[in-house]
Design a protein that fits this description.
The protein is an alpha/beta fold and 350 residues long. The protein contains 14 helices and eight strands. An eight-stranded parallel beta barrel has the order 1-2-3-4-5-6-7-8, surrounded by six helices.
Length: 350
């Protein structure tokens, strides 16, 4: 009986536990140990104030990005200005203009076709190698042959680079925004399909519109030549026009170019196109060419009538950055390489 009663009591206790929740109640968790308070970070040391850059000259200097300061390419053999200065000291200032006019092709016994264009242009590159500073292909005379002609232009630029020649593509591009950035990518970017060391550009949509091109060129160690005082008589009406601030258009362009070249040694990479036939046009327009501190491309010597004495009249006694492109006066001596090289060597003999 006692055993039976104890079993009944055990069963009753079990039933009561099951009825309360099916399982015995969980034991309570011990209280969690509180985390120690975090150690506060020491106050950060404030950065010292940056040293302000010296003010730049030129109306458009405020458009110059900070990363292209006056020391960016100073003394660097990788910059366009440095390569020009070195090339002039080693090989002189003459650059062979590759202008495949139909009449010149005919005088060389070549057809006015893509094959004639290619033969003419590659022979000109071979003649210039080791003798001239570089070559300056005229883009329009390749474009007139369509896509195959542009293909020849790409080949000519590549061959000239392989020969150690400075290449200036004469295309006079000028536009705004993304269109100008597209031109820059085509000719001056690191992966440019028509890569040249420098490109001629037009500032007449405002010098500030050239900023994407200048940025791309400098970042790739290349350069630009900005139209300033051109040799065509029609240019005077625009370039000598006086602005509201009392300066001529040409003077403002030269000042803006100079602001990109400030204190760069030996030369900056933003150059100007100043015709060798303008006489004292720089003085008349109030253009200070000595302050530009960049290469100066001087077309007009040779077939257009200018000579060494005209260079000194336009640029003064300091010709260190002056580049003289010669085209028809040299190319007319072709088609043999010895004759072309002889014409190049004699080009600037006083």
């Amino acid at each position: 009986m006692g055993a039976s009663g104890g079993g009944a009591g055990a069963g009753a206790g079990a039933g009561a536990g099951a009825g309360a929740g099916g399982e015995p109640p969980n034991a309570p968790h011990p209280p969690s140990t509180p985390h120690p308070p975090s150690t506060p970070h020491p106050p950060s040391t404030p950065h010292p104030p940056s040293t302000p850059h010296p003010p730049r000259e030129g109306r458009f200097a405020e458009n110059q990005p900070e990363e292209f300061s006056e020391t960016t390419f100073s003394g660097s053999g990788g910059s366009f200005g440095a390569r020009v200065a070195s090339g002039i000291s080693e090989r002189g200032r003459v650059m062979l203009g590759i202008d495949p006019h139909p009449g010149l092709l005919e005088s060389w016994g070549l057809p006015d076709s893509v094959s004639g264009l290619r033969s003419f242009s590659l022979l000109a590159v071979e003649a210039a190698a080791g003798v001239a500073l570089g070559v300056k292909p005229q883009s329009a005379l390749f474009e007139r042959h369509g896509a195959p002609g542009i293909g020849v232009l790409a080949e000519v630029l590549a061959e000239a680079r392989s020969a150690g020649l400075v290449t200036v593509l004469d295309a006079k591009r000028g536009d705004i925004g993304s269109t100008m950035a597209g031109y820059a990518a085509a000719y001056l970017g690191p992966e440019a399909p028509l890569a040249a060391d420098a490109l001629t550009v037009s500032p007449y949509l405002g010098f500030g519109s050239l900023e994407p091109t200048i940025k791309t060129a400098l970042d790739a160690g290349r350069g630009v030549f900005v139209l300033c005082l051109t040799s065509n008589p029609e240019g005077r009406a625009v370039q000598h026009a006086v602005r509201s601030d009392g300066r001529t258009v040409a003077a403002a362009i030269a000042s803006a170019a100079a602001s990109w070249n400030s204190r760069i040694v030996p030369l900056g990479s933003v150059g100007l196109v100043v015709g060798a036939t303008v006489g004292d046009g720089a003085r008349q327009a109030g253009v200070d060419l000595t302050s530009v501190n960049g290469p100066l491309l001087a077309p007009g010597v040779g077939a257009q009538g200018a000579g060494l004495s005209d260079l000194r009249q336009v640029f003064g006694p300091d010709l260190r950055g002056v580049i003289v492109p010669l085209s028809r006066s040299v190319l007319a001596a072709g088609p043999t390489i010895p004759a072309l090289r002889s014409a190049l060597r004699a080009a600037l003999t006083p």
